[in-house]
Specification:
With 253 residues, the protein is of the alpha/beta class. It has one domain (40-66, 82-252): P-loop containing nucleotide triphosphate hydrolases (Rossmann fold), CATH 3.40.50.300. 38% of the residues lie in helices and 26% in strands. A hairpin with a 6-residue loop joins strand 1 (10-21) and strand 2 (28-39). The radius of gyration is 18 Å and the shape is globular.
Length: 253
């Protein structure tokens, strides 16, 4: 009997994942036989030096890129064989994204940006979803900013709008790529605390790529990549422990 990802409590997983860019002598193997799962309701930080494959891994897990070989699932749906249209619909309905570049639509106000996933899906929020969005707006301190366009907001406010948009549809899975990279330390702490609370209180699975030990210390689990392979997978770590691990990895590299 095959074990399904639901049985394992996994929101996403990959098996024997390899990704190569280019070919022949100049080819670069970004991921080398990686197998890992993101557990439901858990906040996972994915770390590693530049070129370790962490963003590539996230992009393949999220269905934004295809593997050279290996398989990927979101829940019980194998995404490695889906068409572009099927992938787009799956991502829209089950996955949220927060990027370092906020990726807000400049012509839409805050509320328009938050409701964008619903517009793209051709529907309006249900009463339950609307209540959830109102709660997010309040928690994120955006109540007075709903009619502002992105250029009228600070970097921290723009990132909070991006997080509200990512969480508006209550996705099973949230991918965050260096979400605090453009933020000051106070705003970074607020954003990370919100992500941790979302995971804890709403059972959402979060995978965050970061190079920042302080950001990673908010996660329940820290996965380290090196040269396209998983070199360590640890439960919650302090920023000091993470820094020490990264330093040791650089020394032995």
């Amino acid at each position: 009997m095959e074990i399904t990802s639901t049985d394992l409590g996994l929101a996403a997983r990959v098996q024997h994942l390899t990704k190569t860019f280019g070919s022949g002598e100049s080819g670069v193997r970004a991921l080398d036989d990686v197998s890992i799962g993101i557990r439901r309701g858990e906040f996972t930080a994915i770390m590693g030096p530049s070129g370790s494959g962490k963003s590539t891994l996230m992009h393949i897990m999220a269905g934004l890129d295809a593997p050279t070989s290996g398989r990927a699932w979101i829940g019980d749906t194998e995404i490695s064989g889906l068409s572009d249209t099927e992938l787009t619909i799956l991502r829209r309905r089950r996955v949220g994204f927060v990027f370092q570049a906020f990726n807000l639509v400049p012509t839409l106000d805050t509320l328009g940006n938050i409701l964008l996933p619903f517009d793209l899906d051709g529907r309006r929020p249900t009463a339950l979803e609307k209540a959830r969005i109102d709660g997010l707006v309040e928690t994120l301190g955006l109540t007075q900013r709903l009619r502002h366009r992105p250029h009228q907001l600070s970097g921290g406010q723009q990132q909070r709008v991006a997080i509200a948009r990512a969480l508006a549809t209550a996705p099973d899975l949230l991918f965050a790529d260096e979400p605090t990279g453009n933020l000051d330390s106070k705003t970074s702490r607020e954003v990370l605390a919100l992500l941790a609370a979302t995971s804890r209180e709403h059972g959402q699975s979060i995978a965050m790529v970061t190079h920042d030990p302080i950001a990673a210390s908010h996660a329940d689990r820290v996965v380290f990549l090196g040269d396209g392979r998983i070199v360590s997978d640890k439960p919650r770590q302090s920023a000091q422990q993470i820094s020490a691990h990264m330093l040791a990895a650089e020394v032995t590299a």
